[in-house]
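User: Hello! My lab partner asked me to get a predicted holo structure for this protein. The small molecule is zinc ion, SMILES included with the sequence. Please write out the structure tokens.
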Amino acid sequence: MNRRNFLKVATVGSALGLVTVSRPALASVSTLPMPVARPKFKDDDLADYLRKVRQFDEDHEGDVYFDEYNWGLLKSSLERFVRMQRVVGHGNFYLLDFDEALRLANTYPSVGAFTTPELNFLETLFYEQAAIYGFYGEKPLKNLTDRIPLREVVKVPDSGNYLYRGKPMETFEAIRKILGPEVILTSGVRSVIKQFYLFLNKAYESGGNLSRASRSLAPPGYSFHGISDFDVGQAGYGHYNFTERFIATKVYRTLRELGYLTLRYPRDNLLGVRFEPWHIKVGTRV
Ligand SMILES: [Zn+2]
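Assistant: Hello! Below are the structure tokens for the protein in complex with zinc ion.
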């Protein structure tokens, strides 16, 4: 797909009312190869793509935005998720599935039921091809109502996070054995709802720019935190654990030397995602 075609795809007006500021809609969604196309670039286009991903938290030409109607639904859905998190607690919210979220919203007046336009918005965003706005990763959770099997996860002490039993937990335990309390689990298992909350929050902070949000955070369904992966950090390093400064830490250097750092999103990957040296790719649970 060359850049011109890629931009055509990126400017498609979709059911979500995605718009770009500078270009008209030129093609239909059906021109997107299924299920997900990795971009194939000419040299100039590749340079352009890599520049965008390196400057991930900026607006770029060709970025895809929510239109005004959907911007309103983003805000009201996000506020509802914030209220819901307050009711169920931070830890439980990591595991909350879509059906539970609907029940909770209906039950607790302090959360309030989702409106039909909000539900349509969430459903459309979930099933929309993320490649339309520049995210090319796989989609491990394919259904909006996919659940985290509670018997397959375990709460990790002192972290407030969960990990899948089997390979993810074994990997973290091995890491912990080497580095002790210096290494912390900064994010483990995340349900579809948790990923919705994080992604909508990022899209809100990005002024409705979906492309910009998806350069930092996988859209709902596309996160491997849903099935196996997790993030690690250096104790006491705070938000720097989620910046490139993480590569200066002892935790990063040690894990790299020992071969534990199989990254899901290496530098200059072609998935449309920024370099995430803290994100450990596990891949499978067993
Ligand atoms: Zn991660």
